User: Which sequence fits this backbone?
């Protein structure tokens, strides 16, 4: 072992410190400072010219220089191999879980007919037998994971076409988690058309804490794509539901942004903010570029997709809103404890596969996670998703600065169409500045909420991101 004497006088470089390979920088307009986002640690902060200079010569500084601790805390410098750490995190994500997560489709039927929908709808409701199979599967998954917590996402089709199934299955799954001393919570993806006060209260009893409702623009703009099956507008009724009901859960309004409604992003955001204020409900907004859809292609109804700088700008807004530390995987499709179940009891790894029996890996009746391959009807449909986490099987991704947040992109697209890079891959400055703006908003919010400014707390001139502790803006 090295003696204290041997360590004296070492440079930071000799002690193993180096700049993170996952730093992105942008000059802060109107100042001499630079904003640095670290994608591995999920931090973003502002640095003065002297601090930026010290970062550039970090190798040569004394290892006890005070800047070392500050930069290391934000992940801007590190003394380990971050990519190797992502590889380990990716492998762990496949098998480690503190609970299980089930996306359940009580019906694949839908009362809407949206041209960009990726699903091939077929009617039909989940039978009592399939519900029994799901409860038994949840028990097997909890046993195999040595876990006790359950998270459910109600999906479809339109799940509110089958509220009775949501209510009865929720009761059984809540009892299962409760019996093991665990927690249960749920979310729902709904078009919002059937969200009456009675239904909202039922969802509240079923521990739904978050709903995602899509609104694609104001009035006629929304109605052009979010129309009833058989025709008919939906905007007024969805908005009336969100305004008139007292909702016991938060609502995330998703705006599917395409060419035809791109111009309404700011207006719709303002509309949603007013809706939240007027109703007293917890409603927030996020824009998401519409992806190409095979089903829409087949119907010849593909909506105008965003491309070029428009797609990049919307994607920056979307991604900056959910910045977090690198995890080594992209989504639940890469974890064995995250399962999608259609109304017939078929199991899938991905939301885009729920309507495609050919992509199912097994059934709720037969699949046993303690013997995951032998009980799968199609093991390839399980393993191919799991194997897309870090270490990502793609040399370009392994060298890419976006790897901690992108992890090679959506596994489903990688497997069945093409690798989906972040839309703003060649414009990192735009992303850093969007994160930086978010930090400003957070600091203002914190100052307004607590009656005191957050400050940077360390006297360094570094604008800490104000999220407490690790400097994450999440
Ligand atoms: S694989 Fe892609 S489409 Fe499927 S759940 Fe993950 S992110 Fe979504
Ligand atoms: S998919 Fe593209 S942006 Fe993402 S890590 Fe790979 S190369 Fe980078």
Assistant:
């Amino acid at each position: 072992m090295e003696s204290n004497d041997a360590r004296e006088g070492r440079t930071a470089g000799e002690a193993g410190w180096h700049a993170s390979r996952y730093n992105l920088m942008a000059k802060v307009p109107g100042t001499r400072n630079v904003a640095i986002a670290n994608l591995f640690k999920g931090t973003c902060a502002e640095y003065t010219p002297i601090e930026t200079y010290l970062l550039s010569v970090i190798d040569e500084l004394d290892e006890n220089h005070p800047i070392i601790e500050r930069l290391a805390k934000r992940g801007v410098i590190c003394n380990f191999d971050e990519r190797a750490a992502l590889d380990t995190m990716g492998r762990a994500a496949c098998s480690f879980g503190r609970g299980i997560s089930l996306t359940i489709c009580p019906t694949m039927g839908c009362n809407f007919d949206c041209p960009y929908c990726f699903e091939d709808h077929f009617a039909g409701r989940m039978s009592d037998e399939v519900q029994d199979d799901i409860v038994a599967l949840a028990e097997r998954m909890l046993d195999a994971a040595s876990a006790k917590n359950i998270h459910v996402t109600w999906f479809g089709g339109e799940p509110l076409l089958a509220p009775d199934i949501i209510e009865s299955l929720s009761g059984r799954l809540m009892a299962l988690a409760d019996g093991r001393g665990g927690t249960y919570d749920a979310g729902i993806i709904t078009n919002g058309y059937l969200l009456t006060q009675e239904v909202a209260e039922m969802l509240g009893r079923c521990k739904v804490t978050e709903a995602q409702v899509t609104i694609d623009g104001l009035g006629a703009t929304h109605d052009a794509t979010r129309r009833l099956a058989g025709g008919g507008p939906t905007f007024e009724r969805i908005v009336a539901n969100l305004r008139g009901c007292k909702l016991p859960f938060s609502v995330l309004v998703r705006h599917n942004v395409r060419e035809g409604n791109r111009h309404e992003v700011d207006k719709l955001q303002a509309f949603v903010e007013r809706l939240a204020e007027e109703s007293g409900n917890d409603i927030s907004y996020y824009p998401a570029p519409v992806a190409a859809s095979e089903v829409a292609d087949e119907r010849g109804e593909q909506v105008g997709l965003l491309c070029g700088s428009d797609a990049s700008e919307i994607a920056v807004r979307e991604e900056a809103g959910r910045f977090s530390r690198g995890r080594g995987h992209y989504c639940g499709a890469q974890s064995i404890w995250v399962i999608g179940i259609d109304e017939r009891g078929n199991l899938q790894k991905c939301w885009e596969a729920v309507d495609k029996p050919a992509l199912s890996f097994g059934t709720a009746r037969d699949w046993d996670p303690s013997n995951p391959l032998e009980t799968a009807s199609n093991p390839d449909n399980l393993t191919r998703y799991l194997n897309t986490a870090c270490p990502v099987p793609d040399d370009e991704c392994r060298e890419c600065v976006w790897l901690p947040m992108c992890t090679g992109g959506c596994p489903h697209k990688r497997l069945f169409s093409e690798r989906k890079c972040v839309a703003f891959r060649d414009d990192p400055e735009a992303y850093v500045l969007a994160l930086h703006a978010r930090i400003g908003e957070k600091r203002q919010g914190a100052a307004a909420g607590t009656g005191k400014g957050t400050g940077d707390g360390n006297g360094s001139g570094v604008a800490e991101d104000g999220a407490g502790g690790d400097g994450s803006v999440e």
Q: What stands out?
A: Residues 330-331, 333, 350-352, 410-412 surround iron/sulfur cluster (ligand 1) (CB under 6 Å). Residues 43 and 472 are 4 Å apart (CA to CA). Residues 91-383 form a domain with the TIM Barrel fold (CATH 3.20.20.70). Confidence is low (pLDDT under 50) at residues 298-302, 449-474.
